[in-house]
Backbone:
């Protein structure tokens, strides 16, 4: 178990770092290895209350190389915190259990975070940008939620299960969100769904569930656009506190001292 069942658990979420084997490489004009390290250095600086674990909600590697996952491990390992990982559309799940599933790093599965349970879902579809929760993964979620019936639960995944209001992003969203939401609706213990993928801050309450998505540690997309428009926001990350009474406190932070003075090139779509 992470933390104690009688105290809030403090978590740092970082998402969509899009790392490469060659750390000099960039996307959207950002050297992604540098921006991830800058985020970690700010969030985990001396004097900032330390989280008890780090959650990484996918798009860890952009180039499908073991070296990119090695670079990810090397960026996080020095902090000595438990790291929970799951795959995004850009990831290579076949590589991940060996590279980000051992010695302080967990790939997928579930966790006990203080008084809370957490389930980490795989929404990766080979070769596709959109997401899907496969039958086996939905069945596993159902089983875990039955097992965790006596505590609040956070479900983590890459593709948010709600539209974010940008046509182009919602077109590469979770294709069977309705099937996932049907599972969640059977389990009122689910209080938070935490994702990435959309490279922007998103927060919406659906029934009693807080659905969150978080800015990338590299470049951001402008919310509510028809087509991809890069944003002038810096790298971001999210703090989450899970309280024993089921309460949640959460806050997105934008990296200080990192100015984006012109819209980055949209070199991806
Ligand atoms: Fe991403």
Residues:
């Amino acid at each position: 178990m992470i933390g104690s069942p009688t105290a809030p658990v403090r978590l740092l979420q970082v998402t969509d770092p899009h790392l490469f084997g060659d750390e000099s490489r960039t996307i959207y004009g950002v050297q992604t290895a540098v921006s991830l390290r800058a985020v970690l250095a700010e969030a985990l600086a001396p004097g900032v209350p330390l989280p008890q674990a780090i959650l990484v909600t996918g798009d860890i590697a952009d180039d499908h190389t073991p070296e990119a996952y090695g670079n990810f491990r090397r960026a996080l390992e020095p902090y000595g915190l438990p790291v929970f990982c799951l795959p995004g559309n850009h990831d290579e799940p076949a590589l991940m259990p060996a590279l980000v599933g051992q010695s302080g790093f967990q790939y997928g599965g579930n966790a006990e975070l203080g008084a809370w349970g957490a389930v980490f879902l795989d929404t990766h579809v080979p070769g596709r940008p959109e997401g899907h929760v496969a039958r086996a993964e939905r069945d596993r979620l159902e089983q875990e939620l039955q097992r965790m019936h006596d505590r609040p639960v956070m479900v983590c995944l890459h593709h948010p299960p709600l539209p974010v209001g940008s046509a182009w992003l919602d077109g590469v969203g979770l294709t069977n969100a309705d099937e996932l939401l049907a599972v969640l609706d059977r389990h009122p213990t689910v209080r938070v769904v935490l994702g990435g993928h959309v490279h922007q801050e998103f927060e919406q309450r659906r029934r009693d569930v807080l659905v969150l998505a978080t800015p990338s540690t590299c470049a951001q997309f402008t919310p509510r656009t028809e087509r991809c428009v890069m944003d002038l926001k810096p790298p971001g990350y999210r703090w989450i506190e899970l309280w024993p009474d089921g309460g949640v406190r959460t806050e997105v932070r934008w990296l200080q001292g990192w100015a984006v003075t012109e819209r980055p090139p949209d070199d991806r779509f």
About this structure: The chain has a mean pLDDT of 97. Helices lie at 32-43, 66-76, 96-100, 135-147, 167-170, 177-185. The pocket of fe (ii) ion is lined by residues 16, 18, 59, 88, 90, 197, 199, 216 (CB under 6 Å).
